[in-house]
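Batch job 17 of 40 flagged for manual review because the log was empty.
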Amino acid sequence: MISNRYYGLIRLHYLLKMLGALFLFWGIVWTLHLAFYGSELQPRN
């Protein structure tokens, strides 16, 4: 039972790291896009 909790916490930690990396990536993309194109977030960009 303790081993199940241990492996569950490892999976939870992995999931949180992946979500954090995803949000960080899209945050950087959004910030750079605004820095280069300003408020023109059009599909042509």
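Reviewer: the log was empty due to a logging misconfiguration, but the result itself is present. The mean pLDDT is 87. Unflagging and moving on to job 18.
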